[in-house]
Design a protein that fits this description.
The chain has 788 residues and is an alpha+beta fold. Helices cover 21% and strands 20% of the residues. The strands form six sheets. The chain has a ten-stranded mixed beta sheet with strand order 8-7-6-5-9-2-10-11-3-12, with helices on both faces. A six-stranded antiparallel beta sheet has the order 20-30-21-26-27-28, covered by helices on one side. Strands 25-24-23-22-29 form a five-stranded antiparallel beta sheet, with no helix packed on it. The longest helix has 31 residues. The chain is globular, with a radius of gyration of 28 Å. It comes from Cellulomonas terrae.
């Protein structure tokens, strides 16, 4: 085997041609040049497939003892290794950035999700250029790279179609191919997709059988086949990050129906069943204890009997969702097998980027956005009962109850967001690589963390960590390669120190011991009492004999607890965790959080065809008065369609023309829809159409009076009785002249939303006192710019 001659610590690898004889005539016999050779990694570098599921607790999948069937995970585990002490950060975007860089999440600016970024370096959502992503390192060493699915690492002010694209997967992220979505979640039936940095529509509709997970698997299978057909000697790095099983829990009905009746006994019983199965499988030690239910989590017996069929169906839908995504991961594994490359592919199957999500309220949710707007009370038990048959369908945006999230983290305490306890951070993980792992079906219990994946892949590929990337000196990776564990089951763990922190929930692991403190409860988004950081109560656990953190030793070992608390503070200082930040509403509002916004001021100008604009790309009109003015050409037969719409079926607003009449629709969470229409149709010709919303004031989420105008003349009015105060959607967008995704109004569909006249321009003005019902076309641009 020829030795590798590349200087791979500096990337891109410098071109350093050796000096040779230069001849005058190419026909001269002495004319000779070395052959041009494609850049490849060192000989023996494997293909790499990393699969990262979303919001799956340790006790959910059957491969780790849970009730949700995951035959693909079981297949890979039987031919590889299960890691039962692998850890994440307790939240999605931080875990993903840590995975893709090999650094702690605060080190790469991702202390929380991008939507709550602040100006503090550890929470800015900006990855420093001294911490290049793994995909870029692999690409610059000769790997083909592709990502399919979720990307939640783009700062919100950089998420518009104009970028900048430095943080996008196929921009500065190092992936040559990207097909997926930008943000924390997406509608599985009607997602907002990107191919590279170009917005695209799904290839089919839900009615035609479309589902995002299947689409992502199709794309990944096609890409892998093509890559091996065209570049058989070149290894690949594929990162598959499905939206599943993050809410909304969307899955074809037949997958959920497989579990009919399976969860009728409730979450307390399910947790005990899972724990018994985990001991049978050996994925938890025989001396492990099942942690008790905290008082903040209701028992199944305490839930209303009339609501229990809804609660059981929530879990049936979730279980079907997890089995469904595992099935489509299996299609990719089958492709590797068919191509004869499975044995030489290093597969990481990470079952969850954090613990199970407890963001669905105590009763669960038909539309999870209700809770994020502090309006969960709208979803009464009677309302939820009326929606039972729709759970998981395109008409829902559903989430399960807190009790199910707790049960899916068996046998551990707490859930997603709670970085202090293993329920939030311990995720079952499988590594499969027959050419690199001799043992089949083994279990590894060394402490490992998501920041260990990148250095493991580099070591497996025979690649050094780069010291320079694109002219920027790199800081060392903070993870520890797991490669030593592959054939050394009893080797002492090498990653023996790790801090944790999320929204003030924090802890430290050191040489078997963990000191932790839970600061806030994830599902309490409105109200509640949050203690001062210095008043948090710390707990102490001996992991060498207490797998699940069931026995608090703080009272017995106060001196050790104090030592670990001090160690947490040292690590927090080292990695940019401080200052601790447990704010909520302040971090959602950009000016209070201290992060940039794409738009400033009180006015924004749009043109026909603009679309796929995230909420962070549009001036906010929530909790205030605003107006929309559009100059249009109306043909003689009349017009129909959307002038501008924000949001979709599960919350948003639309200014549109309904069979010739100017119309305004405000949709509150898909629960209440308010529509105001003009008394007369828009006449043919060029006209300014305008709607004004006069907010009632007196707090958040109030209603207001809507007035409609043709060329400054009132033509209709009506009331909107309530509004959404915080967010319309995590995935729907703002579109001009049409509406992508789902439709705000039940009066049209995305297919019938296109405006049939001509739009010259549309202007949004918020919170202004002037009432110029007609805008001078010569002044509109100057006014809009001045207000920014």
């Amino acid at each position: 085997m020829r030795p590798d001659s590349h200087a791979r610590t500096m990337l891109p690898i410098p071109d350093r041609p050796a000096p040779t004889l230069t001849t005058y005539d190419a026909k001269d016999p002495d004319t000779a040049f070395p052959p041009i050779e494609p850049l490849l990694p060192p000989p023996g570098a494997p293909n790499v497939l990393v699969v990262l599921l979303d919001d799956v607790g340790f006790g959910a999948s059957s491969v780790f003892g849970g009730p949700c069937s995951t035959p693909t995970a079981e297949r890979l585990a039987s031919g590889g290794l299960r890691f039962n002490r692998f850890h994440t950060t307790a939240l999605c975007a931080p875990t993903r950035q840590a995975l893709l860089t090999g650094r702690n999440h605060h080190s790469v600016g991702m202390g929380s999700i991008t939507e709550t970024a602040t100006s503090a370096p550890g929470n800015s959502s900006l990855r420093p250029n001294t911490k290049a992503p793994l995909a870029l390192t692999l690409k610059l060493n000769g790997y083909s790279t592709a990502q399919f699915g979720k990307c939640h690492e783009v700062p919100v002010w950089q998420s518009s179609p104009m970028g900048p694209f430095d943080a996008w997967p196929s921009g500065g992220g190092g992936f040559e191919t990207f097909y997926g979505f930008i943000g924390g979640e997406n509608n599985q039936w009607d997602p907002a997709l990107y191919d590279g940095t170009t917005p695209v529509e799904p290839p089919a509709t839900a009615e035609e059988g479309y589902h995002l997970t299947e689409d992502l698997a199709d794309r990944a299978v096609g890409w892998i086949r093509q890559q091996k057909a065209l570049m058989p000697d070149k290894p690949f790095f594929v990162y598959l990050a499905p939206g599943a099983t993050h809410a909304p829990h969307h899955v074809p009905k037949e997958w959920a129906d497989k579990y009919a009746g399976a969860f009728d006994d409730g979450w307390d019983v399910q947790r005990e069943r899972t724990f018994a199965r985990q001991k049978e499988l050996g994925v938890v030690p025989q001396d492990a204890d099942l942690t008790p239910r905290h008082a903040e989590i209701p028992s199944w017996d305490d839930m209303p009997d009339e609501l229990k069929p809804v609660l059981a169906r929530q879990m049936e839908v979730y279980a079907g969702f997890l089995e469904h995504v595992d099935h489509h991961v299996g299609r990719i594994v089958d492709t590797l097998d068919d191509l004869g490359i499975l044995d030489d592919t290093l597969v990481y199957y990470i079952i969850g980027d954090n613990g199970a999500s407890a963001e669905g309220t105590l009763n669960g949710a038909f539309n999870e956005m209700a809770n994020f707007n502090g309006m969960a009370a709208l979803e009464t038990p009677e309302f939820l009962i009326s929606k039972l048959d729709e759970l998981g369908s395109p008409s829902s945006y559903n989430h399960y109850a807190v009790g199910w999230a707790w049960a899916m983290c068996s046998p551990l305490q707490w859930t997603k967001q709670v970085a202090s306890h293993w329920g939030g951070t311990r995720n079952g993980t499988i590594v499969h690589w027959p050419n690199g792992i001799a043992e089949r079906g083994g279990l590894r219990s060394q402490f490992t963390h998501v920041i260990d994946v990148a250095p493991t892949i580099l070591e497996a590929a025979g690649l050094p960590e780069p010291t320079m990337v694109n002219g920027v000196q790199q800081s060392p990776m903070e993870g520890t390669s797991m490669l030593y564990t592959f054939d050394q089951p009893d080797s002492p763990e090498r990653h023996d120190l790790q801090y944790f922190e999320m929204f003030g929930n924090r802890g430290i692991y050191h040489r078997g011991w963990s000191a932790v403190t839970k600061h806030r409860t994830p599902w309490v988004m409105v109200g509640g009492t949050i203690p001062a950081f210095d008043d948090d109560v710390w707990e102490l656990y001996d992991g060498s004999v207490d797998f699940s953190q069931a026995h608090d030793l703080a009272a017995e070992r106060p001196e050790l607890l104090a030592k670990l608390q001090r160690l947490w503070l040292i690590e927090a200082t080292k990695y940019g965790v401080l200052p601790l930040d447990d704010r909520t509403a302040e971090r959602i509002e950009p000016s209070m959080a201290g992060r940039p916004t794409l738009l400033h001021g009180t006015s924004q100008l749009f043109f026909a065809g603009m679309g796929r604009l995230s909420e962070n790309s549009v001036v906010s009109m929530k909790n205030r008065s605003y107006s929309i003015t559009a100059e249009v050409d109306v043909p003689e037969p009349g017009v129909h369609g959307v002038l501008i719409a924000q949001g979709g079926r599960f919350g948003g607003w639309s200014v549109w023309v309904d069979r010739g009449r100017l119309t305004y629709t405000y949709n509150v969470l898909g629960i209440h829809e308010f529509t105001v229409s003009a008394d007369e149709p828009v006449p043919a010709g060029t006209h300014q159409l305008r709607m004004e919303f006069a907010y009632d004031g007196g707090g958040l989420a109030k209603g207001g009076l809507v007035t409609l105008f043709h060329d400054g003349t009132p033509v209709g009015s009506g009331r909107v009785e309530a509004t959404q105060p915080m967010v319309f959607s995590a995935d729907e967008t703002t579109d001009v002249g049409y509406e992508s995704g789902t439709s705000v109004s039940s009066g049209y569909t995305a297919r019938t939303s296109r405006f049939t006249g001509k739009i010259h321009w549309v202007q949004l003005d918020v919170g202004t006192d002037d009432h110029d019902h007609v805008i001078d076309p010569e002044e509109r641009l100057r006014i809009a710019m001045a207000r920014q």
